[in-house]
Amino acid sequence: MTSFTFFRSLRNPIFARLYTAQTTSLLGDALTWVGLALLAFELAGQKAAVVLSGALTLRVTAFVLLSPLAGAIADRFDRKKIMVITHLIRMIVVGLLPFVSQVWQIYVLILALNIFNAFFTPTYQATIPLVTGQNDYPQAIALSATTYQILGVLGPGIAGSIAALIGARQVFFLDALSFLIAGVLIFTLPGQLRVEPNQQPSSTRGRTWDEINNGTTRLFTDPYIRYALFMQLVASIAGVQILVNTVGYVQGILKLEDVEYGWVMAAFGIGATLSAVAIGAIGQSLARTTFVLFGATLITLALFPANYANLPVLMCLWLLAGAGQNCVNLPTQTLIADRIPTEAQGRVYGAHFAWSHLWWAISYPLAGWLGSNLTEVEFLSGSLIGLGLLLLVQLFLSPKRDESASASESIWHEHEHIHDAHHQHEHAPGIPVYEPHTHPHQHSPIGHSHPIGSDKN
Question: What would the pLDDT profile of 384-442 be if each residue is shown by its tens digit?
Fold first, then answer.
C-alpha cells in the first residue's frame, strides 16, 4: 500500500481541517510542557521535579475521572461545539500561566487545563470515524497518532528553541494563540458534528450516568476490545518503565549526559512513529488483535536485556519498544470504531481514555518502586512482570475467533436506497433524500448512521 493511501483520509475536507486543528493544538501542548518545566524550575529550583510529577498526577486524575462523562456528552451534543469550547477555555488557562508566582497556582491551572483536555480528546477520537467512514478511519486514526508521535519527538525541541528566543513565560502566549487558531479551524467546519437525532434514545432521568456506565460496559463485554484494553495494561507497565527509569540508567549507570538521554528517548518516539505509519499503510490486511499481541510482546521483550545494554543497543531496544507500544494503542482505538455503533462511540472512547490512563496511574508507582529498590535490574523485573501479565491475558482473555469473523454490533456497507422505515438519516446540503442514492452507512440493533459528507447520487 502506497504512502498516498496513508494520507487518503485527508481528501475528506472535514477531517483535513479537523486534523489541522489537532496538529496545531499539539504544537501548543509541546509549548505548554516545555514552558511549564522552565516555570517550575524558576519557582521551585531543585524541587521542580516534584512540581512536575504533581502536575502529571493531576493530569492523569482528570483524565480518569472525567473522560467517561466527556464521552457521554459527546454522544449527546454537537461535537464541534464541545471541541471549540474546550479549545477556547484552554486558551484562557494557558494565557494565565505567564502571571503565575506561586507553585499552588501551577497546580490549579494545570488541573483546569486537563479537565478540558479530558473533554476534548475522547470527543476528537470519536469524531474521526464519524466524519471519515469505514474505508478511511483506520488511516485517519493512524495519521493522527503518527502526527502525535512526531510532534512528541520534535515538539519539545521546537518549543525549547522558541523559549530561548522569546523567554520562558512568553511561550504561553504563543501556546494560547495555537489553541485559538485550532478553535477557529473547528468552528468553521460546516454544519454540526453530532450523532443523528434519530439514533439517540429519548431523555430519561439518570441518562448521563447510564451512558457513562454503558461506555465502560461495552469496553468490558466486547471480547476483542476487552482483550486489547488489558494488553494496553501490559504495554503501560513497560512504557512507564521507559519513561521513569531511562534517565537513571543512562546518566547513573552508563554515566552519560543529557544529550545521550535525548537520543535514547528520541529513538523511542521514532519507533512509535514508524509503527504508526506502518499500521496506517497495512490497513485492514491483518486482524487488529494480531497487531495488539505482537506489540505487547515486542515492548515487553525489548525491556528484558536493557539492564545490560550500552548506548547503541539501548537505542535499538527503545526503537522496538516504541514500535510495540503503538502496535497496541492504535489497533485498540480502531477496534472501537470497528465494533461500536456510531451513536455509542463517544462514551466508549471516553471510557477507554479513562481506563487506559488508569493503567498508567497504576504503572507509575510500580516503575518508581522498581527504580528505587531494584536499581540494577529494574528493566528486567518490569519485563518479567509484563510477560507474566501478558500470558495471563492471552490465556484467559484472548478471543477465540478473529474479530473479522465475528458479528459486530454494527456493520458498515453501501447500497442504493431511498428514505423508508429502514433508512432515516440526515445528509449534506443539496442531497435529494427522496431519490435513490448510495453512501457508506451503518446498520446496528439500535439504529442507522453514515459518515458526514459521504453521500453520492
Answer: 999 999 999 999 999 976 555 443 444 444 455 555 544 555 554 444 444 555 544 54
Cβ(216)–Cβ(134) under 8 Å?
A: no
Query: Do residues 401 and 428 make contact, with C-beta atoms less than 8 angstroms apart?
Result: no
Q: Which value, in Å, is the radius of gyration of the alpha carbons in the chain?
A: 22
Q: Residue 396: which residues within 8 A CB-CB, separation 6 or more? A: none
Amino acid letter at 454? S
Helix ranges (H only) for 45-170 are: 48-76, 79-96, 103-132, 137-166
pLDDT of 2 over the 50 cut: no
Kindly state the DSSP code that residue 404 receives in the 8-state scheme. Answer: G
Residue 433: Cβ within 10 Å count: 13
Backbone phi and psi for residue 441, each to the nearest 5 degrees, phi listed first: -150, 180
Strands 448-449 and 440-443: antiparallel
Please, is 41 exposed, middle or buried when counting C-beta atoms within 10 Å of its C-beta (0-12, 13-18, 19+)? middle
How far is it, in rounded angstroms, from Cα 235 to Cα 99?
Answer: 39
Partners of 456 in beta bridges: 438
Q: 27 is written with which cell numbers?
A: 504544537
Amino acid identity for residue 61 in this structure: T
Are 264 and 311 spatial neighbours (Cβ–Cβ below 8 Å)? Answer: yes
Read off the C-alpha cell for 140: 485517519
* Grid cell in block for residue 238: 513497560
SS (H, E, C) 222-290: CHHHHHHHHHHHHHHHHHHHHHHHHHHHHHHHCCCCHHHHHHHHHHHHHHHHHHHHHHHHHCCCCCHHH
Q: Which three cell numbers stand for residue 383?
A: 519485563
Closest CA to 81 of 19, 41, 127, 113: 127
In this structure, what are the phi and psi dihedrals at residue 440, rounded to the nearest 5 degrees? Answer: -65, 130
Reported in sequence order, the residue ranges of 402-454 that DSSP labels E, i.e. its strands, are: 411-414, 440-443, 448-449
* Cα 265 from Cα 272, distance rounded (Å): 11
Determine the pLDDT at residue 307. Answer: 95
Phi, psi of 156 (to 5 degrees): -60, -35
Reduced to 3 DSSP states, what percent helix, strand and coil does the chain have, rounded to the nearest 5?
A: 75, 5, 20
Query: pTM here?
Result: 0.71
